[in-house]
UniProtKB/TrEMBL annotation:
Its EC number is 6.3.5.-. One of its GO terms (biological process) is glutaminyl-tRNAGln biosynthesis via transamidation. This is Glutamyl-tRNA(Gln) amidotransferase subunit B, mitochondrial. InterPro entries: Asn/Gln-tRNA_amidoTrfase_suB/E (IPR017959), Asn/Gln-tRNA_Trfase_suB/E_cat (IPR006075), Asn/Gln_amidotransferase (IPR018027), Asn/Gln_tRNA_amidoTrase-B-like (IPR003789), GatB (IPR004413), GatB_C_1 (IPR042114), GatB_Yqey_C_2 (IPR023168), Gln-tRNA_amidoTrfase_suB_CS (IPR017958). It comes from Geodia barretti. Gene3D superfamilies: 1.10.10.410, GatB domain, N-terminal subdomain. GO terms for cellular component: glutamyl-tRNA(Gln) amidotransferase complex; mitochondrion. Subunit of the heterotrimeric GatCAB amidotransferase (AdT) complex, composed of A, B and C subunits. GO terms for molecular function: ATP binding; glutaminyl-tRNA synthase (glutamine-hydrolyzing) activity. Belongs to the GatB/GatE family. GatB subfamily. It is found in: Mitochondrion. Residues 331-478 form the Asn/Gln amidotransferase domain.
Length: 481
């Protein structure tokens, strides 16, 4: 690979989370019985007419604004003509020469540097259905069609060929996914096919400005499969070029079981699709007022929020990356840090014990009973020495399970720390008397022996004694005995 430069452009298809499909009133429900989410319009029955879903257009404009695109004042839909069994009309309503959004960009961190990749376009189109083959039916002679997904609104985000490694392409995909999730236009659930990536990949001699012959890998809805497919395709094309042969422009499928790409069909050009304007839909008009109303509704985007967390809260880039992974998580931390004035402590609790609880319960932070107010109260209880850090963990566990506030849990369970020095000293003297060996070891110079004695005191007080006071009193008692 010392001889070649990798060039990758990406097409990302994101399913918009509208309540109905792009051109009809059908709701799409993942996992519904085959063909239950259909009507004559999305089944392409003769005589039916499409009606554009305004919400889908609004979501597209939001995505375009979030990615710095120019919003086209007057765009149109086109018929993309091709035959495939899962395409009920034998054409797809898409956008060709006048997309809704053009000339944007996406910035992201990669290998410690800020990278910016230009976007060629963002356009709106309808999804196709799903073919069900022998691996599901058990019959190699028959395939079935499920048209539930046909007509679902898709946002296609097309980058320029400015990515130069599979790893960089994955970082770009993650950045796009984050933006779409933050602006709440797609759930980007890759397991359910809500986000699918299609890399166009080619190799060229290092130093060359001319692009090589590209291949396209279809519909990857897993980052791991996406990177495996790209890595294999890089090696395959390098072998072809090393042998003095030419790469064939084609569309490929990636077989995860073999780890190889296989030819699906020859790569089509625009002319092959015989695009022409969709006669049943009028142009989409986007006014300046529409854009002006949409812009303020956009949230703070993940890259900007990461930068603010680092500067305002003085947390590390890695922690900022973790805490901005999803918008609900970022907003939880932001509010907890504001309430408590202890951003580092909040970050540690969120990334540690709270994440452990969320993972065990298999829920997201927005679905948890614990709120920023809970975390703030917990941090206050530790700060004023009402409870120890160890007890705080059990309090958080209880709050996560019940939704009760930490002060209520501490009061109901009697978990407040013992800070009365005379009470602690009484227990310390008893522990020293019951454990003469470790006590003498400490007096003889084995200072680590005090750890055992501290543990015995904490055990006797069920963890409620203030650990700092226990250490101080033990040290005084052992030094004077």
């Amino acid at each position: 690979m010392e001889k070649y430069e990798i060039v990758i452009g990406l097409e990302i298809h994101a399913e918009l989370c509208t309540e109905s499909k792009l051109f009809c009133n059908c709701a799409y429900i993942f996992g519904a019985l085959a063909n239950d989410c259909t009507c004559p319009i999305c089944l392409g029955m003769p005589g039916t007419l499409p009606v554009i879903n305004r919400r889908a257009v609004e979501f597209s404009v939001r995505a375009g604004l979030a990615m710095g695109c120019e919003i086209t004042p007057s765009s149109k839909f086109d018929r993309k003509n091709y035959f495939y069994p899962d395409l009920p009309k034998n054409y797809q309503i898409s956008q060709y020469d006048i997309p809704l959004c053009q000339n944007g960009q996406v910035s992201f961190e990669f290998e410690g540097e800020l990278r910016t990749v230009a976007l060629r376009r963002i356009h709106l189109e309808e999804d196709a259905g799903k073919s069900i083959h022998a691996e599901v039916t058990g019959d190699p002679t028959r395939s079935f069609m499920d048209f539930n997904r046909a007509g679902v609104p898709l946002l296609e985000i097309v980058s320029e060929p400015e990515l130069h490694s599979p790893e960089e392409a994955i970082a770009y995909c993650r950045a796009v996914k984050e933006i779409l999730e933050y602006i709440e236009v797609s759930d980007c659930n890759m397991e359910e096919g809500s986000l699918r990536c299609e890399p166009n990949l080619s190799l060229r001699p290092k130093g060359s400005k001319e692009l090589g012959t590209r291949t396209e890998i279809k519909n990857k809805n897993s980052f791991q499969e996406l990177i495996d497919a790209m890595e294999y395709e890089v090696k395959r094309q390098a072998r072809i070029l090393d042998a003095g042969e030419e790469v064939v422009q084609e569309t490929l499928l990636f077989d995860a079981s073999t780890g190889k790409t296989v030819a699906m069909r020859g790569k089509e050009e625009a002319d092959d699709y015989r695009y022409f304007p969709e006669p049943d839909l009028v142009h989409v008009q986007i006014s300046d007022e529409w854009i002006e109303e949409s812009q303020p509704t956009l949230p703070e985007l993940p890259a900007a929020r990461r930068k603010r967390f680092i500067s305002d809260y003085d947390i590390s880039p890695d922690n900022a990356e973790f805490l901005t992974n999803t918008r609900p998580l970022a907003e939880f931390f932001d509010e907890a840090a504001r309430l408590s004035g202890e951003p580092t402590t909040c970050a540690n609790w969120i990334m540690g014990d709270l994440t452990r609880l969320l993972n065990t319960a298999e829920i997201e932070i927005q679905d948890a009973k614990v709120t920023p107010a809970h975390l703030n109260e917990l941090i206050q209880l530790i700060g004023d020495a009402t409870i120890s850090g160890k007890i705080a963990k059990s309090v958080l566990d209880d709050a996560f399970e019940t939704g009760k506030m930490p002060k209520q849990i501490v009061s109901e369970k009697g978990l407040a720390q013992i800070t009365d020095t005379s009470e602690i000293e009484t227990i310390v003297l008893q522990v020293v008397e019951e454990n003469p060996g470790p006590a003498q070891d400490y007096r003889d110079g084995t200072k680590k022996a005090i750890g055992f004695l501290v543990g015995q005191v904490m055990r006797a007080t069920r963890g409620k004694a203030n650990p700092q006071l226990v250490n101080e009193i033990l040290t005084r008692v052992l030094s004077t005995d």
